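Q: What would this chain look like folded?
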Amino acid sequence: MTASSTEASILLVDDETHVTDALSRHFPKQKYQVLKAGSAAEAYSILDRHSIDVVVSDERMPGESGSEFLANVRRRFPKTIRIILSGQASLEAAIRAINEGEVYRFFLKPCNPTDLIFTIQHALEHQRLAEQSRALLREFRKQAALLEAAQSGHSELLAVHRDSSGAVLVDEGDASDSVDGLLREIEESMTREQQRSARS
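A: My prediction, written as C-alpha cells:
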C-alpha cells in the first residue's frame, strides 16, 4: 500500500491517453492514488519508484504488448495485482494474458469503470485475506514448534494410562502440574523469541 491517506495505488497503462484519463476520473481520490503510463517502458519506471497495488494495462501497445508487460510485472513484482484491457474479443489474447501474466481479470474495451473499480476492490480484499491467512499459518507453525519443543521435556503429558475396562485414567494433580509447567515454558520461550526479534 501507499500513503496512509489512500487505500491503494493503481497504475493505468495505455498508449491512448484519453483512455487512462477517462478511467482515472472515476477512482475516488480519498481511496485511490492513480498513476498513468503511456507505454510499458514508462510503466516499469513508475513501478521501480512507487509501490503499486494494481496494474491495469491495455493489451495492444507499441513495443511491448500488455500480456508481455504483465508477465514481466508478475516476475518482478509478484504481489501486484494484474488486470488487462483489450479492444478485441480475442480468445487467443485472453489465454495469453492469463497464462503469461496470470492476470486477475480480462476486460473488453470500452470498459465500464464501475465494474473495473468493483473488481479492483474485490481483488484487493482477496489479497488482504490471503496475506492474513499466510500470517496466521506462520504464527500457528511457530507456536506448534514451540509447543513441540516444550512437550519434549514433558513426555508425561503424552502418556495415556487406562484401567481394565479401557477408560483413560487421569491424575489431576500431576496433569495440572505438568500443564502449568508446560505453559510456563511456552511463555518463557515466546518471551525469549520476542527479545531476540527485538534485538535483530
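The longest strand covers residues 8-13.
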